[in-house]
Amino acid sequence: MSTENFSTLRYELAAPGVARVVMDRPSHRNAQNVQMSYELSEAFDRAVQDDEVKVIVLAASDPHFSAGHDLSGDGAVRLGETQPAIGTWGGFKKPGVEGRYAREQEIFLQNTRRWRNLSKPTIAAVQGKCIAGGLMLAWICDLIVASDDAVFSDPTVAMGVCGVEWFAHPWELGPRKAKEFLFTADSWTAEEAHRLGMVNRVVPRAELQDHVLALAQQIARKPAFSLQITKQAVNSAVDQMGQQQAIDQAFVLHQLGHANNMLKFGSIIDPSGMPSAIKKSVY
Ligand code: ZN
Fold first, then answer.
1. Rounded Cα distance, 77 and 154, in Å
2. Strand pairing partners for 21?
3. pLDDT score of 2
4. Is residue 4 part of a domain?
5. What is the pLDDT of residues 23-36, one digit of tens each?
6. CB 163: neighbour CB atoms within 10 A?
7. How far apart (Å, rounded) are the C-alpha atoms in residues 51 and 189?
8. Of 37, 119, 140, 270, which one has the fewest beta carbons inside 10 Å?
9. Helical ranges in the chain per DSSP H
10. 104 CA to middle of ligand 1, Å?
11. How many Å lie between the centroid of ligand 1 and the Cα of residue 164?
């Protein structure tokens, strides 16, 4: 996969010191298939390796930031065949729990953790709907700026699992609100997410991209190394509070949910909980 030939996203040098990665599958509401996962990794790596880039923006083509994970297909890559794994797992086609566990380790857990630990500041620009797996993409960014029409939800409990694979809900929302968010699957507004501390800023939709770019440029004027070590220091503090272990534990419970669904329904999700409007595109 050439870094020059992304098909699910655009890579832009948006301003001096700022790279912008724009998810660009609007016909799929920017649902993340496996191809997009690897293109995101490649785009982030490119930004990290470019010494002129100091801040990375993750944005999305209108109208929605992300409808979550795309279950309708992997795109133009075959995991473990045409696409080498970037994590430590293999055996993606094995039957039983083995293959599913390895696949989700690779594309949902290890990949996501890698993005969370990129050595440069990242800012998510979120508009429209940000659902389930879309939350994972926003949450791994250091800052989140949302448009005033953004809404956030994780409807996966109705699908028989305990939330999306990157289980940062208690850290992003606090434990009590995380339970409400998951139990009800309600959509929460940008303003509510801001009140809970999940979102840094809320701005009018028309101003979102300009606002994020100005914020990125403000940050990019700081010394690159102090930005890097500051990010590392904060992430390390969160790690010391147990986030990594909590996410790893929830990931195993998530796999237990998938296994239970397979035994009961022959499907990794409970089909009765799959909202028809977002069938195939979200979990
Ligand atoms: Zn899963």
1. 27
2. 11, 58
3. 43
4. no
5. 999 999 999 999 99
6. 23
7. 37
8. 119
9. 34-49, 96-104, 111-116, 133-139, 169-173, 175-184, 190-195, 208-220, 224-240, 243-265
10. 6
11. 7
Q: Which amino acid is at 222?
A: K
Instruction: Quote the pLDDT of residue 82.
Output: 85
CB 135 within 8 A of CB 116: no
- Give distance in angstroms: CA of 130 to centre of ligand 1: 17
Domain containing 191 equals: 9-279
CATH of the domain at 201: 3.90.226.10
| Residue 247 covered by a domain | yes
In this prediction, residues 10-37 reach a mean pLDDT of 95
Based on the number of CB atoms within 10 Å of its own CB, is 83 exposed (0-12), middle (13-18) or buried (19 or more)?
buried
Q: How far apart are CA 70 and CA 274, in angstroms?
A: 13
Is 56:21 a contact under the CB 8 Å cutoff?
A: yes
Q: Which amino acid is at 194?
A: H
| Total domain count, the chain | 1
User: Beta-carbon neighbour count of residue 95 at 10 Å?
Assistant: 7
| 252 Cα–ligand 1 center, Å | 10
Q: Is residue 98 part of a domain?
A: yes
Residue 213, domain member (yes or no): yes
What's the CA-to-centroid distance between 40 and ligand 1, angstroms? 19
